[in-house]
Amino acid sequence: MSLAPPDSNGIEGRRYGAWVALRADATAKRVSCVCACGAVRQVAIDALESGMSRSCGCTPLSRAEVDATRREIAQRRRLEDWRPQR
Ligand SMILES: [Zn+2]
């Protein structure tokens, strides 16, 4: 848990559509993600957070699903704001 660099925002383990974030790189700009199909890619965190990238391409998502994921992410951010940040 304490292995994550402080600027990675604790992204590891988060779900973004079919992706599960594994580990942010040193710049915290990209993160290794494993897709639900098992593919592993480096994905830009911006693309994950904005809903632009939801899978390796194996799972086309509808606009509604993208919007739902965006809401989920937004809600998660609000919840995290309530927690003391260490
Ligand atoms: Zn995939």
Residue fraction in strands: 15-25%
Distinct small molecules: zinc ion
Main sheet record: 4 strands, antiparallel
H-E order: EEEEHH
Provide the domain count.
1
Mean pLDDT: 78
Backbone shape: globular
> Roughly how many Å apart are the termini?
13 Å
Q: How many strands?
A: 4
Give me some keywords for this one.
86 residues; 2 helices; binds zinc ion; globular; 4-stranded antiparallel sheet; alpha+beta
Report on the structure:
30% of the residues lie in helices and 21% in strands. It is of the alpha+beta class and 86 residues long. It has one domain (6-82). A 4-stranded antiparallel beta sheet has the order 1-2-3-4. It is globular and about 35 Å long. The structure holds zinc ion. Zinc ion binds next to loops. Residues 18, 35-37, 39, 55-56, 58 line the site of zinc ion.
SSE layout:
Blueprint: E1 15-16, E2 19-24, E3 30-34, E4 40-44, H1 45-50, H2 63-82
Antiparallel strand pairs: 1-2, 2-3, 3-4
The structure holds zinc ion.
In short:
The chain has two helices and four strands; from the N terminus they run ββββαα. By secondary structure, it is α+β, with helices and mostly antiparallel strands.
